[in-house]
Amino acid sequence: MLIDIRLKNSSNLLRFSTGGKDDLGYLLEFINCQYVHRPDYAPSAEILDAYKKKKISWPEYEERYKNLMTERKSVEDFLIEFEGIYETVCLLCSEPTPENCHRRLFAEMILERRPDFELEHIIFRKKSNRKRKNQNERSES
Q1: Of residues 70, 103, 105, 69, the one with CA closest to residue 89
Q2: What is the pLDDT of residues 33-59, one digit of tens each?
Q3: 110 CB-near residues (< 8 Å, 6+ apart)
Q4: What is the mean pLDDT of the chain?
Q5: CA 42 vs CA 27, 84, 92, 100, 135: distances in Å
Q6: Nearest to 36 by CA among 91, 83, 73, 75
C-alpha cells in the first residue's frame, strides 16, 4: 500500500502526478500496488507555507506538525485503517531525504505507538565521483 501524504497529490515535484498513463498510477498498477491519498496526514497549508517562507524553523515546524497530527488523531486513524491489513506500507511525500520531512515525523509518531513496527527510509543517492572513477579504471584494465 502506498499512502500519499502530500497536501496536494497533483504536485509534479516527484515527476509523478495521479492522472494519465505516464505517471505513478500506471506504475502502481503495473506492480499491483494500491494507492490512497491522505492529505489529513500532511501538514496544513499554513504550517507548510510558514516553513517554506522561513517564518518558522524546523523545530517549530516539527512541533506544529506533531500537534496537528495529535489534534486530528491521525496516528489512531492510521492504525485503525491500515494496521493488520497491509504487511508493508509506504509513505510518500516530496522530500528526497527524511531529515526535514513530515513523512519521517509521521512514521516516528506511529512507531511511538507501535514499537514493534519496522521503519525503513528509501533513499536514492548519486554515486560519488570517486566510486565512478574506480569503476571506470577497472573497466579500462
Answers
A1: 103
A2: 999 999 999 999 999 999 999 999 999
A3: 75, 78, 79, 117
A4: 85
A5: 23, 23, 10, 13, 41
A6: 91
Asked if residues 90 and 82 have their Cβ atoms less than 8 Å apart, the reply is no
Whether this prediction's pTM lies above 0.90 is answered by: no
Q: What integer is the mean pLDDT of 129-135?
A: 55
Q: What is the DSSP string of 50-101?
A: HHHTTSS-HHHHHHHHHHHHHHHTHHHHHHHHHTTT-S--EEE-S-SSSTT-
Q: Grid coordinates in use for 35?
A: 494507492
Rounded CA-CA distance 33/123 in Å is: 19
Cβ pair 75, 3 in contact under 8 A: no
Confidence band for 18, pLDDT divided at 50, 70 and 90: low
Q: What is the pLDDT of residue 129?
A: 62
